[in-house]
User: Fold this.
Amino acid sequence: MNAALAALADQQAELLAVVSDLADPDWQQPSRCEAWTVADVVLHLAQTNELASASATGHFAEALDGLVDGLGSAGSVDEGADLMVARERGAPGALVRERWKASATTQLRALAACDPHARVTWVAGQLSAKTLATTRVAETWIHTGDVAAAFGGVPPPTTRLWHVARLAWRTLPYAFARAGRELSGPVAFELRGPNGDAWEFVPDRAPTTVVRGDGAELCLVAARRIDPRNTELRAEGADADTVLELVRTYA
Assistant:
């Protein structure tokens, strides 16, 4: 848990460095998220940080009700997120930034106070507090790139992505189930980290599928920010044709 929280704190600091000096017009630049501005992305992160804090303190349902009250039903998680952003869109960028900063601090404190193994409520159902912390690392990293891309580049990959890659590996059964598919058997990831170190995620039983390649590329694929066909990732085995298509790090 401590390692995940340290990674989350570092990732939040990286995003803060991107948005700390933005001028008013910068907040309205289109982000890498389709139809969302920079302000929209940071607002979305503030909203989901608030939900994560509520989850960690046992108040997820009430917090979610407050964010979706009056919005009607959404057909998907993505549609629900879009509706929540649309309802609160329009605040000055500086206020959005301050809301996100406050939510980021509260989120860290709430998660740090949790038993890492405690089951908490999240969008996709129950999960451990440690896993929730890791999903927050993943989402904050994804959206840091979405924001930074509006200004011509994204921060280089760091070893924090180990947590994101491991999350993608551990949640493969969920990703397949969400798509109405079933894994043929265990999957192993044999990846290369940004510093050239080996990131090996190996199941207890012999894998029927193995994914090899760059860890940062795997994370981008799982984040739906790059097509696996445009990477050097390679999969071999029973689910080679689908594992890179379905892998994901979010609900």
